[in-house]
Design a protein that fits this description.
single chain, 491 residues, mainly alpha, 2 domains, 23 helices, 75% helix
Length: 491
């Protein structure tokens, strides 16, 4: 039955609309995946030599063991961003005489065909044959190989379960992000070293191969848990339903802002229910952790304004840049209905401004904790926040009025570049480089803090002239209204 369902999926691909575009995209993705796999294979074959060069005087096998948990922690994050849920493809078979267990087996089998499940084999397995087997014997090599396979399977089914749970309850998503952030912070501040834990456990497996059974049991538990969940809740749309129960999807706390609150509620629902805008929102949260990369001692002493301003801008304004460029395109499928209703465009634009204000302010609050590293980061972050509130949000909405490409929210978020053109790349560059045009003259004349103050003051002035911006953007929208609608219909 699994082979039959897979053959149906193959036929559906070849007989679907736009198959020529799909083939071209699949060939391109296949080339990228083959290139990545080839690169990983070369890395795996040369790993022993590379570890010897990077960690001179240390045992390469111990260094190898210390990297395993790091890889699989990063693997979890990558799976959260790129792993899809192959669920809706089984929907037509619900009315057929097919057992649910067979459909679940098909879903689990199909989900395993993912490049993230192959990457660890190319990276880790060659080292096992070239370094571990000659030194520790076949039993130890087989045990390490089994643990690599087990952790791959565990991550795969664990992430499928977390993603499906997140569709039901966003607290699962928040819990996952918090756990990853907490582990990263504990490791960064050397409170809990993943390297030490990884080295201790996997070195033990080298001398006691039977310990590999623990991870095999863990992988089997993740598989059975995911299988049980699918048997009880086969389809995503069923997860949000309860028989005889009606659930409200209104955000009553937004009603205090009237029409603008309802518009913000529409954006929140759009982000929560669709993969691509949700991906943008998640990435905006994840990128607030980039301060641990940029706000390092070598950049803080002496205080490097050029390097430190860049992360401050994109951490507090990434959502505005990525989501705001498609401010109208996200709702392109129903944009005609929005304009035919009794909704002033000025109120629609005001709602976008308020959404950007909230997102940037939340990002500023999160990133303000970097002030514990160095208090001088706070005025830089504050200036970047004001710049995003006043100038970046206004210019981003103007660029949205010249974007005539619609977005199909039903498509996957992975490798999806629909609606992205040269305009989007140009604006992303302008939004990140623009602040430097303000502060560079002051830095060159030896007054960098005056430049930071000037950046914040210009952003604040622009924010205070918000009503003027709304009037200007409304006129700009009406100039290109028919071009926007025509482009959205052609998506």
């Amino acid at each position: 039955m699994i082979l039959t369902l897979l053959s149906h999926q193959w036929k559906s691909f070849w007989r679907g609309r736009g198959v020529s575009k799909s083939i071209a995209m699949q060939l391109f993705l296949s080339f990228i995946i083959l290139y990545l796999l080839a690169s990983c294979l070369v890395l795996g074959l040369a790993l022993g030599h590379l570890l010897g060069q990077l960690f001179p005087g240390q045992d390469t096998v111990k260094v190898y063991c210390g990297l395993i948990l790091y890889y699989f922690a990063l693997d979890l994050v990558m799976r959260f961003l790129f792993q899809e849920l192959p669920v809706l493809s089984t929907q037509p078979y619900l009315t057929q005489n097919i057992r649910r267990s067979q459909l679940v087996a098909y879903l689990n089998a199909r989900s395993l065909f993912h490049f993230l499940n192959i990457l660890p084999l190319f990276i880790f397995i060659p080292f096992i044959f070239t370094n571990i087997a000659p030194a520790f014997g076949a039993a130890a090599a087989a045990a390490i190989a089994a643990t690599i396979l087990s952790m791959t399977v565990f991550n795969h089914f664990l992430m499928l379960y977390i993603i499906r749970r997140s569709v039901l309850n966003t607290w699962w998503l928040a819990g996952f992000l918090f756990t990853i952030a907490a582990l990263a912070a504990l490791d960064y501040f050397h409170i809990l070293s993943l390297s030490s834990v990884s080295t201790f456990f996997f070195v033990k497996i080298l001398f006691h191969p039977w310990l590999a059974l623990l991870l095999m049991v863990l992988a089997l538990s993740a598989f059975l848990n995911n299988r049980r969940f699918l048997l009880n809740n086969l389809y995503i749309e069923e997860l949000s339903k309860r028989s005889g129960e009606k659930r409200s999807t209104e955000y009553t706390w937004l009603q205090q802002w009237g029409t603008i609150g309802e518009l913000i509620g529409l954006d929140i629902k759009l982000i929560a229910r669709n993969k691509r805008p949700r991906y943008v929102a998640i990435m905006s949260v994840i990128f607030t952790l980039y301060g641990f990369i940029f706000f390092r001692h070598e950049n803080l002493a002496p205080f490097n304004f050029y390097i430190l301003l860049f992360p401050a801008i994109f951490m507090t304004g990434l959502f505005i840049i990525n989501y705001g460029q498609f401010a109208f395109a996200w709702q392109s499928s129903g944009f005609d209905g929005l304009l035919t209703g009794n909704l002033p465009v000025s109120e629609y634009i005001r709602g976008k401004f308020l959404l950007f204000n909230v997102s940037s302010t939340l990002a500023f609050i999160l990133t303000s904790f970097y002030g514990f590293m160095d208090w001088r980061l706070l005025p830089v972050l504050a200036a970047a926040w004001l710049y995003n509130l006043g100038l970046n949000s206004a210019f981003t909405l103007w660029f949205a009025t010249v974007n005539y490409k619609g977005i199909d929210l039903t498509k996957s978020a992975t490798f999806n570049y629909q609606g992205i053109g040269a305009t989007q790349w140009i604006w992303a560059l302008v939004a990140l480089v623009g602040p430097y045009l303000i502060i560079v003259p002051f830095v060159l004349f030896g007054a960098p803090w005056v430049g930071i103050a000037a950046l914040g003051i210009l952003g604040l002035i622009s924010f205070l002239f918000r009503n003027w911006w709304i009037t200007f953007l409304t006129k700009e929208f009406y100039k290109r209204k028919h071009l926007i609608l025509q482009g959205f219909r052609e998506r």
